[in-house]
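for the writeup, i need someone to sanity check this before i put it in the appendix. the sequnce is what the collaborator sent (i think, or maybe the updated version? ugh). structure was predicted straight from it, no edits. if anything looks off just tell me and ill rerun, i have time this weekend
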Amino acid sequence: MEYVTAVPHPRSEAPGSARAGRMSLALALLCGALGAAVALLATRQRWSEGTVTVAGGPFPLTAKGSDVTGVPAALAIVGLAALVAVFAVRRAGRFMVAGLLALSGAGTVAAALLGASDSAALDEKAAQASGDTAATVDALTHTAWPYVAVAGGALILLAGLLALRYGRQWPGMSGRYERGGAPRPRRQARPTDPDRPEELWKALDRGEDPTGA
């Protein structure tokens, strides 16, 4: 005869929560590190190009991402540092660092988008090349590298959002090295055997009294 009970069986959500924590940790590390590397790489590439008219004719000009704006590279470094710092802090500190990580990603995206159509860097180079402070760049074109930096910033932002959502489940950097609060028992010296002269000499070297007095 089977018995039916209305009491629900308890469910254990710990395995699922731990699995989600591990997966989010791996994804955040991948996104954060990859995003910072992509953003830094993109800022070192050519973002725009054009020409300026000089005495000898059109003179080609190019501008790298770092010439246009230094914000994406700086924020990518901040985001990478915040990604590491997430594991060095706990509770409210971890939440604040995760927020900084997300803001670094959002700032990288915004700065790269603003720099995608910027011509100030090439205008400055045009003025220097022509010797005319009023000169501006001609035939201005932009490359796709600013949008690569945007993608890098988006990955950093995703890492920050994952840290905000799942960071409390991640282990701390010092957790694996922490020990229990109980003091470790001291090893007691082994009693010296008076019938073994070598042990008497070792005890004397250690500053011990081999006679046990």
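The helical segments are 14-43, 65-68, 71-85, 92-115, 120-130, 145-166, 197-205. The two ends are 78 Å apart (CA to CA).
thx in advance!!
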